[in-house]
Amino acid sequence: MNKINVFLTNDIILFPNSEVRFETDNFDDKEIFSLLEENGSKELLLVNPYNTTTEFPDITELPRIATLAEIKMKIDVPNGKTRITLFGVKRVEVTEYFNDNTLYFANYKEINSEVNEEDDVNYKNLLIKSLERYINKVPYVSNSIMGQLNLIDTVEDLTDIIAAFLPLNNEKKKKYILELNPIKRVRMLIEDMNEDIKFIELEEKIEEKVGKELEKSQKEYYLREKMNVIQQELGDFNSKENEIAEINKKYSKLNCSRQVKNRIKRELKRYESTSAASPESGIIRDYLDWLLNIPWNKFTKDENDLRKVEASLNSTHFGLEKVKDRIIEYLAVKQNTNNLRSPIICLVGPPGVGKTSLALSIATALKKKSTKISVGGINDEAEIVGHRRTYVGALPGRIIQGMRKAGSSNPVFIIDEIDKLRKDIKGDPASSLLEVLDPEQNNKFSDHYIEEDYDLSQVMFILTANYIEQIPYELQDRLEIIEVPSYTEQEKQSIAKDYLIPKQLHEHGLTEIEVQFTDDAIIKIINNYTKEAGVRELERLIATILRKIVRKILTDKTIAAYVIDEKQVETLLGKGKYEYEHIDNEKRIGVVNGMAYTVFGGDILPIEATYYSGEGKLLLTGSLGKVMQESAQIALSYVESHAKDFNIDEELMKKINIHIHVPDGAIKKDGPSAGVALATTLVSLLSKKAVPSDISMTGEITLRGKILPIGGLREKVIGSKRAGIKKIFVPQKNKSDIDELAEELKEGLQFIYVDEYFDIYNMVFKNDRK
């Protein structure tokens, strides 16, 4: 092993037995050569990094083959640069790299690459003959090297010297440096020379044909003739004439307005009169291509059998009755009137509950074509309405692109993640979508690139979003919003049994006879291995289990069938990753169960409080957002103002600091719905009265103690029931939301509807003793 300095360079390629000269004013490069001069060392490793975009690459990105170089000359010239001459000694293999700031070092070992005598002689002769032919064909390569070739002993050295001599690009030269097999290097070099010879011969052939046909000396005529010959060689002669004929054929079949047809005619005349070599020709051709391929008045026939549509939707998605009913109602009214605009539906719900897949299933059920775009993160309105043709590389917006992809004037058009649109200096994409979605104006939608009115009135738009409050208000006003709630444990179990498991069995080539899941196994996967509102992760885990089963079946032919129970789940997936909150069995002072709604669904939110000597300050911890912090301040102010009513010592409150904490501090929490839980926690703490652990509550509280309605109630109820809650306090104005819940979800729960905080106080604390 030999430790040595490393010189990293992207531009200088050094072969063994060859020499390179260069000048550098790079500080780091000059430092390397100065250090070597001070140490009296003449050798270094020249390394060409794989990553050419960074000046100081990671040592893991450096090649293992390098050239050992000898410094023949180092001169500092007056202009501040250093002139270097390096001689390539041999290839070496790097065993280890290490660096110190900007300086790199390496350990290397020598490479033994021997060629038997017969191959050495044969390949040496073949290489010399190929080089002679190459020099004779390529006019810009000198024959000065030929006199030196007989002095070279081995084919390996000969290959390196010729590769250094030839005008090859750096990427090819790097390949020769990295190739350790001498015979492979010879073959690569011969192949590269033969490719150049073929290219030169083709050039000569083209020049010969052009020369025979050339009658004028003008430059433009010469270039046109040369282009024609190139097209002949490519089998593409008269391609523009063929394109024009194809355009006319498509034009004759168009069912568009006279205004659009007139524009196509004008653009086609421009295209015919524009030189094929002109950049304008390509721009016009692209524009014509868009005009001809957008579906103008090209409609598909919808499925009108209501029973078939309903059966199709039920076969692909469990539950979601509101959405299914709305589609059936649309079809029924359309049949009855024979003239109905398509609805603009927005499906709102947590990730993974099936919004996008349901939209695609609607298209399948109606026998409509479908197209889908995602507008998440878009902050440029040109993404929606296109770029004007004056811009280089202009294109239509995503709406027109989607219509072309659908190939129909009445598809199901899915716009994903509408709540993640962004507004900045580039414009407001939400405003641009108004023209797309508004039924009063989308029959004349104008894309900046197309510049012709396009009818979107027959398109069935289905939008998806995770949070309704993040959808721009001007869009909300035009949408029919349908909430797609998170699934209960029972619903997830039904979806797994009826949809996911059969689907994954089919995809893995298994049958229900070979693999069966017990109900307890499915419940275990849902509760201990997933934490989601939908079923995406559940499906992935089922697929994981089946992959492992397939592997076992193929490796152990004696296994005929598998029954996946709870024990098998843990064996195949390992220990469970998740555990939902569950209530304590004992009452505690200063601890109350709030209710949370997250992207994973619902859960209980234990709120803890304590106090210590202080000056009446309030400390909040647990990654609480601004709105939740304000709710805590409101709750404290309300409790202080009613201290006598709650049997709280007012003097005590002046002498203490109160600390409220919401566990799981790594998870951000926000919203006003924890107001009543925060107030109850403070009353419990300061009056020293415990709150039953099987109670949870939700609602926004005001300074007057009024309890206002909140959202996400279904998910919160699901989370509370799972945690073992028996009694839930709910705002009176949310009673209609509770009434809509399935009976199986409400079973075993007592709902208490409250208008003001004293309703809660009277039921929780009134009869308790301190």
What does this molecule look like?
By secondary structure, the chain is of the alpha/beta class. The protein folds into six domains: 2-110, Roll (Archaeosine Trna-guanine Transglycosylase, Chain: A, domain 4); 117-204, Up-down Bundle (Methane Monooxygenase Hydroxylase, Chain G, domain 1); 239-293; 306-397 and 405-483, P-loop containing nucleotide triphosphate hydrolases (Rossmann fold, 3-Layer(aba) Sandwich), CATH 3.40.50.300; 489-573, Helicase, Ruva Protein, domain 3 (Orthogonal Bundle), CATH 1.10.8; 588-764, Ribosomal Protein S5, domain 2 (2-Layer Sandwich), CATH 3.30.230. It is 43% helix and 19% strand. The chain has 27 helices and 26 strands. The chain has a five-stranded mixed beta barrel with strand order 1-3-4-5-6. Strand 4 (65-76) and strand 5 form a beta hairpin. It is extended, with a radius of gyration of 38 Å. The model has no long low-confidence stretch (mean pLDDT 85).
Question: TL;DR of this structure?
Answer:
With 770 residues, this protein is α/β, with parallel strands linked by helices. 43% of the residues lie in helices and 19% in strands.
